[in-house]
Amino acid sequence: MSSDPFRELMSGLNAKLSGSHLGEQRDREAEEAIAVFVLKHYGLEGYKRELKQLCRETYNVPALRLEMLQQRFPTFPVYLAFRRVKKLFDKTNLSSLFTSFVSLPFMDDYGVLLDSLEQGLLATKPVGMVFPWRALPGGMVLHNCELDQTQSGVKLLWVYRNKKAKKVQRLVLEPLSSLLRTISQWTPDE
Fold this sequence. Notes:
Elements: H1 5-41, H2 48-59, H3 66-72, E1 79-82, H4 88-91, H5 94-99, H6 105-116, H7 119-124, E2 127-131, E3 140-143, E4 156-162, E5 167-175, H8 176-182
Parallel strand pairs: 1-2
Antiparallel strand pairs: 2-3, 3-5, 4-5
């Protein structure tokens, strides 16, 4: 009994497409969970429906996105963007956080994020890239905010010389909950 090559090709293609669709769905769910985490931190859960409607109108996506928080609350002190970092746990361990930070998977994604943003935004706000991290509600955030040394919590500070900008820069990796506590004095403009 011979197999049908066209059927095998189509079956493989359908499997890839549905896998890609499932990945996109998981990313939307993860980003929405993180956006809700931020809303809850500031007692803004009541805005969820309005923000989801904005997402439908803007992106034709029925899920909440972090970018909608920026649109609705432009005074939020950090520009937060969601990224799913590929191969994060394959290449990241405790020692790599200290010995090869620049080569970790999230560094390329952060660079791409910074390159995609307008210079005006970069000049006015620090940028945080939020990504899921196993068993950590809200995930982790890699950002370039100035540190509040009085705020408790664990933060990994990486100081490096940016060859493009020709200056010393700092990046911080910490749980999103820790960053939100640092900027807890923020209140939305109604």
